[in-house]
Amino acid sequence: MIRTAAGLGQMRFHDLRHTAVSLLLALGIPPHVVREIVGHSDVKVTMTVYAHGNLDEKAAALSRLSTTVTGGLRSRGEVDGGRADGS
C-alpha cells in the first residue's frame, strides 16, 4: 500500500490536504489564496473547517492586545498630576 511505503501509517491523503491548508494559513497566506489552491467554493469553508489557531498563536494575540491596551493607558500619576490623594 502507498501509505505504508511512504511511512504514513494510518494517515489518509485527505489528512495531508488538511495539514497543507492549515500550514498555508499558519504561514500567513491569505485565506482567499488558500481557497483558490484547494478549490473551496467559499472562503468560509477554508476558515471554519481548516483554520485552527494553536495555543501559541492565541497567547501571542492576547499578549499583543495586553501590550496595546496597557501601553495606551495613562498611569495614575499622569491622571491626577502626581498627587497621592488625587485632588
From TrEMBL:
Pfam families: Phage_integrase (PF00589). Keywords: DNA recombination. The keyword DNA-binding does not apply. It comes from the Bacteria. InterPro entries: DNA_brk_join_enz, Integrase-like_cat_sf, Integrase_catalytic. Residues 1-63 form the Tyr recombinase domain. This is Tyr recombinase domain-containing protein.
